[in-house]
């Protein structure tokens, strides 16, 4: 738990960026199997779990790094709630994930389908179990990006 937040921290530190955490109102189950079952059911039923807290005002940002764990090959459905609610069109969007072997999975394709009008930059995936040792790798990736 928290691998993606660690990776987000590396990115934010490297860029001096602001952060926003996508948090569902109803926490996901703590047990791995229960969480997997719920995540799969949400995907199957195209659920949009409610977001906790206020939405971010992204109007002043040109570039948004959007990160998530891979769940069943894709983004958790609460990320789709976020994408439905927050307009990222016209921005540069940089996906990143932590995962257990699927890399970026379907996330880049799904984001591109859901955020028409954004410019996408190739994303970065780090295995969740490797994230603690991936600081320099992530910072090297961030600083190599040609962001406008
Ligand atoms: C519900 C669920 C589904 C998952 N599905 C996948 C998957 O399809 N492919 C994969 O590589 N890892 C999968 N994982 C592993 C997570 O992507 C990985 O542990 C990730 O680093 C978790 O990030 P977090 O600590 O920020 O939650 C899954 C984990 C959970 C809890």
Written overview of the protein:
The structure is a single chain. By secondary structure, the protein is of the alpha/beta class. The chain has a single domain, classed as Flavodoxin domain (Rossmann fold), CATH 3.40.50.360. The chain contains 5 helices and 4 strands. Strands 1, 2, 3 and 4 form a 4-stranded parallel sheet that branches. Helix 1 packs across helix 5. The mean pLDDT is 97. The structure holds flavin mononucleotide (FMN). The site of flavin mononucleotide (FMN) has 20 residues, from helix 1, helix 2 and strand 2.
Average residue-wise pLDDT: 97
**Chemical compounds bound to the protein:** flavin mononucleotide
Question: What is the number of domains?
Answer: 1
Bulk shape: globular
CATH-level-2 architecture: 3-Layer(aba) Sandwich
**Helix-strand topology string:** HHEHEHEEH
Which stretches of 5+ consecutive residues score pLDDT under 50? Answer: none
The CATH superfamily turns out to be: Flavodoxin domain
Could you estimate the helical fraction of the residues in percent?
25-40%
Distance between the termini: 33 Å
Sheet with most strands = 4 strands, parallel
Q: In percent terms, what proportion of residues is strand?
A: 5-15%
How many whole angstroms does the radius of gyration measure? 15 Å
At CATH level 3, the topology is Rossmann fold
Please count the beta strands (DSSP E, at least 2 residues each). 4
What is the CATH C level class, in words?
A: Alpha Beta
Class from secondary-structure proportions = alpha/beta
Number of helical runs?
Answer: 5
């Amino acid at each position: 738990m928290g691998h993606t937040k660690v990776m987000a921290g590396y990115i934010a530190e490297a860029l001096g960026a602001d952060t926003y955490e996508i948090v569902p109102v109803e926490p996901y189950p703590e047990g791995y199997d229960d969480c997997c079952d719920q995540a799969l059911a949400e995907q199957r039923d195209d659920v949009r779990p409610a977001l906790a807290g206020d939405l971010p005002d992204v109007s002043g940002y040109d570039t948004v790094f959007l990160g998530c764990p891979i769940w069943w090959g894709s983004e958790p459905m609460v990320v789709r709630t976020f994408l439905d609610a927050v307009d990222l069109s016209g921005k540069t969007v940089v996906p990143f994930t932590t995962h257990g072997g699927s890399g970026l999975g379907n996330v880049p394709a799904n984001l591109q389908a859901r955020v028409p009008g954004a410019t996408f930059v190739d994303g970065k995936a780090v295995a969740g179990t490797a994230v603690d040792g991936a600081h320099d790798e992530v910072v090297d990736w961030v600083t190599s990006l040609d962001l406008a």
